């Protein structure tokens, strides 16, 4: 039996304009895992060509396609098996494909870094960076790695909400990036490197806040500035966002003293701004089942 998991994402911890070694500007993102909105898959191979798929209706087609792609990509001795996919009711469909690929590869004993697995993952329909493990800054368009950091993201508790204060959109085009955008990207990159070396949640959160405010220079949103200025009042470490939507999240250390009080103050702060629908999760939590 092979098993695989792929997390969903609550927007980005950091996004910005980052230069390649050749000086080409690229939109880079460090995604914020939202495991409860991910997908888990189990694959039991058996002789023959029949592939049985058990999944929610929306996930069935991408699950089958991903399994067939993976079986061909890793040159498995059999093309048949029984595939089961677990997703949350409201979860996006796209984590299904990388979860299935990992389950199929696991069934044949391939490690996560195997070349065959990387090839199969690159062919499934998943957003940029969705199948990449560890902590990496990836190109927002093609998912190619801009920089890998020395440590995984430390645990963070996220109090998420969607105020709907800005319209959805693609965000900044790298061709329109200014020298100030590139300078900001260099600062963010340096901050992320320091945060990774010390696995420092506070520094990662500070980078998230700076990134959110920088996005506001291209998509003005006074609410984000107000929340960033009020972080200390509720004991939050930082504020993260999604470059293409109005999603936001207050970041907390999950083991902080007085966490319940911090979260209560944050909810009161948001309620005072007319935001009553919130959710919380920990970036390292895994769904049951």
Outline of the structure:
With 289 residues, this protein is an alpha+beta fold.
Task: Enumerate how many helices there are, as a single number.
Answer: 8
Distance between the first and last residues' Cα: 15 Å
Query: CATH superfamily of the largest domain, called what?
Result: GHMP kinase, C-terminal domain
Tell me the helix content. 25-40%
Radius of gyration: 20 Å
Structural classification: alpha+beta
Percent of residues in beta strands? 25-35%
Q: What CATH architecture of the largest domain do you see?
A: 2-Layer Sandwich
The domain count comes to: 2
How would you sum up the major sheet? 6 strands, mixed
Average pLDDT value?
84
Q: Could you tell me the CATH topology label of the largest domain.
A: Alpha-Beta Plaits
Oligomer: single chain
List its salient traits.
34% helix, 289 residues, alpha+beta, four-stranded antiparallel beta sheet, 2 domains, 10 strands, Alpha-Beta Plaits, Ribosomal Protein S5, domain 2
